[in-house]
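Exercise 7 asks you to align residues with tokens for two separate proteins.
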Amino acid sequence: MFNIKDELDKLPKKPGVYLMHDADDNIIYVGKAVNLYNRVRSYFRVMNNRTPKIERMISLIDRFEYIVVDSELEALVLENNLIKEYNPKYNTLLKDSKTYPYIKVSVNEEFPKITMVRRMGRDKAKYFGPYTSAFAVHDIIELLNGTYMLRTCNKKVSEGTLNDRPCLNYHMGLCMAPCTGKISSEEYKKNVSLAIDFMNGNDKKLMRLLKEKMEKASEEMNFEEAIRYRELLENAKRITERQKIEDNTGFDDRDIVAQAHDDTDAVVQVFFIRNGKMIGREHHHVEDISGMTDAEILEEFVKRYYTGTPYIPPTIMLPDDLDESAIIEEWLSKMRGGSVKLVTPHKGTKEKLVELAANNAALVLKQDKERIITEEKKTKGAMEELSKLIDIEGLNRLEAFDISNTNGFQNVGSMVVFEEGKPVKGSYRKFRIKSVEGPDDYSCMHEVLSRRFIHGFEERKQLSEKNIDNRYGSFSRFPDLILMDGGKGQVNIALKVLDELKINIPVCGMVKDDNHHTRGLYVDGVEIPIDKHSEAFKLITRVQDEAHRFAIEYHKSLREKKQTHSIFEDIPGVGPQRRKALMRSFDNVEAIKAATAEEIAAKAEIPGSVALEIYKYFHSDFE
């Protein structure tokens, strides 16, 4: 039995990392300390200045453990590694806004390639980025491959293993054909180094090379080649102009980091300055920052972000001084293998760049908040509107049903589920009607609803026997409202089923006008008009369309299966395996009809006698 009071007395007065566990032994928080004895004990003292987030976390602590290290720097490194490993609930979590593209140079290969990737691998390749535009990345790769004639194929190329002849790219002057031994790995890598120089921000060398090649080709009256180099030169100018802004404060590499936040969330913006030019930017969301200062938000970001970034510049510019600047600089310098400085500029162009990053962060935060508000209006807001409109409180889960058939052929039913105004596609269900022949939508709906709720009761019983909550079943969760795709008739069918099964769930009909558009809702025997511009109406329309789509797709799939089966089922000697062989070997049924018996036998690899039966089946009118 873990006794927190006794264990607190045993804490060493040394640097280290501590891990807080809850009653289920989940790690809910990881922290570092210069003095474990003082830091961990502070969580269990009565204090008035704690944030609600920390109070919640402390109330869940069931036990703690700690790891002693030799220095604060080691504690910082270990803390970051453990947070990445366990992703604790109460640590500040960093989330990428999206997956940005990187440029990968496979320098670990004898003949490297340049490609675009979305994630950095744990390999010996070089990565550049992240870039904000995938189009720009494609342009850069195309430019470098075209200029330095680098390979783009997926072959495993190494010296001594040669192909008989080069591919088309070689003949077009787009590749040096290392696969045929026309260039050594050493010479090839010189061109790769020049490409890497360009991505490091040294574009003058590439511009000069392209200009020289263009002029030389022109002097030799090789105008086609000159035009190609001129186009490459124009592409290079366009790419460098589009991707960068000038920073006249110097030509070193740096990241500019700034943030904006409200009461609960923050956005951190990072500008990438390489060789004095901004080559890209990105933003990150930081969750649950209530009670944190600007400097604390930035400190958490810097520690989390630079643990996983492929490149650490020698300078990181920030709008605020960090409390742990010295120790973070030491840690980053060790990871980089060279000096790293955290700089807080107070005047001039550098300060303006930090201000620009902060303004961008504020803009992203505002846009994201507006997007979230808009989304909530469409979902939760629409549910609240609907709840008021039909005077039913506590609406969360909606279920809608629809029937689809073609003149009574292959009757099917659909059930779609919406929770908090959003579709829950994993809970959708489809029904193949068993008891109804012909076009009788009311009888079909009676069967669908009966089966849905009978199955729900059976599942509830099974879950109860296993002491499992109803929320974890497919059918055991019943809706707060049933939506029927129709008016009084459909609603009465639903009410009849519910009465037979002794279930009390409100039912709402979606009444249509003569043009098959929803004009109102039918509830408790009364038609209620609905504003066609309201979010509730838009939600009803989405639910209706989804139920209709899901039913039609299921009906269509069954119809296609039936048609495919019926074509072959009467042909002697053609069973399931030979049907599959036929459909694999021919694009469609028309292609089988057009084939001779010999062609059918050869392509589908079936006996000639069976192929002849198939041919006769499709050509019997002509015999």
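Second protein for Exercise 7:
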Amino acid sequence: MQKSTFTPEEEQRIQQEFDVLVDVYEHSMHRQNTELIRRAFLFAKQAHDGVRRLSGEPYILHPIAVAQIVVREIGLGSTSVCAALLHDVVEDTDYTVEDLQGLFGDKIAHIVDGLTKISGGVFGDQASEQAENFRKLLLTMSDDIRVVLIKIADRLHNMRTLSAQPKDKQYKIAGETLYIYAPLAHRLGLFPIKSELENLSFRYEHPDTYKEIEDKLAAIREHQLENFDTFSQPIKEKLKAMGYEFTMKARIKSVYSIYKKMKDKNIPFEDVYDLMALRIIFTPHDGLPEKDQCWMIYSAITEIYRPHPERIRDWISTPKANGYEALHITVMASNGQWIEVQIRTNRMNEIAERGLAAHWKYKADERGENELDKWLRTIKEILDNPEPNAIEFLDTFKLNLFAREVFVFTPGGDIKTMPQGSTALDLAFQLHTQLGEHCIGAKINHELQPMSYVLQGGDQVEILTSPSQHPQADWITMVTTAKAQTALRQYFRREERAQIRKGEKLFNDALVMYNATEQHDTALQRTLNYYELTLPTELYLKIGQGYIQLDNLQQVIFPKKKSIWKRLNPFSSDSDTPTKTVEKTPEEKPTKTKIRKILLTDEGLGKQYVLCDCCHPIPGDEVFGFVDEKGLVHIHMIDCAVAQKIKSEQGKQLCAANWSTHRVQSFVERIAIRGIDKFGVLSKLLAVVTTEFHINLRAINLQSEGGIFHGEMELYVYDKKELQELFKALTQMPDIVSATRITKPK
């Protein structure tokens, strides 16, 4: 091995830190493999020789510190310790994953490879690339969860040494830590690490506020600890009398959690009353279930102090989704202060402190699949069908990092854990994708409720379905869970692919009709040019959706040369020139001012443009846009009364608009109905709308007077063409006098 370029003092410090690592590892419960760890250390030390961090210290101290966190604070074994020591070797040196594979085996090399894929931050100058890296990390997680655990340890040490970074890097790293890594640590049950990540992020993002709360907390800490001793003494005596071995800890609320409570409840520091909690960790007696013994201790404590009836949290009967188990009660101390008491067994405490690593340790003692297993299974389902857009994937994944849950019951009495804020539609997809796709509503506590109903703790939920029901684009706004959003997006992509296949078949059939199959590529390119499209899939999609008809395809692919008269008189009509069978759009009309153009896609609704309530435009309507000061485009119908004023006063802010929706997004339209009030006419009317046209109703308001009924209906329609076909069918009914569209606001 080459001679080190570090000073003797640095060499001594490196050796001391490694000795600490070995000592912590040798006192763990893992099967000892110190020699493998020593080889990994020497290899990493040589690979990083001479390299320094921004602080000036030898770089090798960073992987050693990460390895210490891995074994001491997460509780992992020799494979993870070696991977932590080697985690930057492939990224920062000339060594490859194959080199590590030969020296340390497949498993360690696989973990290092997973860690290398997410080098750098989650966000940055190339955010989508970093988000894609994060997706790769989670893909590796589905094979080996240790990749994520080591990455969290790596992030924790980076946060502990963040002061060496420039200010802009501090803000960036702190922001992404609070956004994704702290929730991820929480979701994996690493509560101490989660709290420290939150505190450190808050400290760098809001240093003044952090210092203010920290000083106030320090000023009352001694008094709080005195209260703790007074409060805990009678409980200690009671537990000793019951024959328990136990430890008690005073848990002081973290600075970040105090800040969150102040902000959420809009209260000053002085009004945050639950600054301290008492944690009891006991060794259960043999022969009695842990759950029963927790309640026995609860009973003993409530004989001493009066409990708060609304602040009992039973996480032992129904553990949290991240595996957390404990019994929380809040009692009033003799000084009138409410204090929370957390009751845990040694096993529960290890899972609470070390999360997933401890979960796997005790998994052999468990029966069936617990909530943490279900969460990991859900993540794997999302990874099997990831979002095409990496940023969307990151947002979707983050939806599953929820901190709070609600528990609901199926009609059979089974408990289902859902994120707070979930809807009945979320639960339908959680139970089964097919159930979600055909959901029409739910019975909540035996009462009919819409799919958008937000679940409350203790609700009994029965999902209602119909074989004729299919997902609509606005369902995305009704769901909050990653599984539901992913399932819906997959459904819409499947539908789009089916439309593309249909369009391609129609195009090829038309070529056969015109004996043009041998000129397929030429015909395709001429058609693309004619409709101003770039990709064949765009053309096939528009054909499949009915936006492009092929009745003039022969003229498009075999254009006739202009006659002599046409060349002499270019302003005359030309019957040989094919006419596009798509609706004329505003940008094709002559205008005195050069204006911009926007393509109205399903994805852009609400982000790039909004549809104005004054005229309710839908695909197929002739429309134009008005660009506001924020760059958002407001879409009006050409003949809208409000739009007339805008066009005369704000000419420079106008832009052309062209529809490019894919029959995925449905739009609410109001129609006026008039007819003869006969028995059964309403049921016939609804049959045409819902059964024949498969159109969903949002609202209906009909009144009858003098043998004539009239009123309004609100429908979900895809475009103008669908609405016109519905009107034609309705007016052909003998008792319907008229059916018209209402374009004025309510």
